[in-house]
Amino acid sequence: MKLAGLICAAAALGMMGGVANAATNLIVNGDFSNPNEGGGWGTTTSLGGGWKTNDPYGVFEVGNSSSIYGLPCISAPVCQNLEVNANAIDTVTYDATGLTPGASYNLVWYYGGRNSGGPQQLDVSAGGPTVIDTSNGVTSVWTRNYLSVVADSGGDATISFASLGVGGSPSFGNELANVSLTAVPEPATWAMMLFGIGGLGVALRSRRKVARAPIAA
Hints:
The chain is an alpha+beta fold and 217 residues long. The chain is 20% helix and 31% strand. The longest helix is centred in the last third of the chain and has 23 residues, at 187-209.
């Protein structure tokens, strides 16, 4: 029983390593640390990866979350985020490619309201009609958001962050940080992990029951 438990535990550890690898963020520059604005802010024509914008000047705006946008630092090692409304009511998208067709992925992002930005709203959709309205009338606060994404038959998914005109400033607001897209582990992987952990528990309980032989004087 102990050997079986140890074998199961080893299998579970191997599976956990596989899950950790599968949890790699598939979004390039999802923390918006590049380019490093050194505590200020600036615009760039490229964020790398599959980032695109419909900004009228074709630029993205990134800056220091604390000193520029009045939000806490949550992106390490550089305290930066993306402002969707760089110059107008903009839409920023990310084209995720090389995914497994039909597979599910977890999309996570943090949304923040900029002080003095007024009412803001960001609609987030990914590869289908599902839309989430990320509304934040409270400034200086990050909220964590989640959306399930399914890759299309070609292994692609387009994620859209679209700002809406709801009365706030059209030229600044709708702060975005820590965007990540990670693969969802298959059910068989989780089952193997639970089985292995259970086997390890059985092995440990059996070990405790073994009495130690007295040492001869």
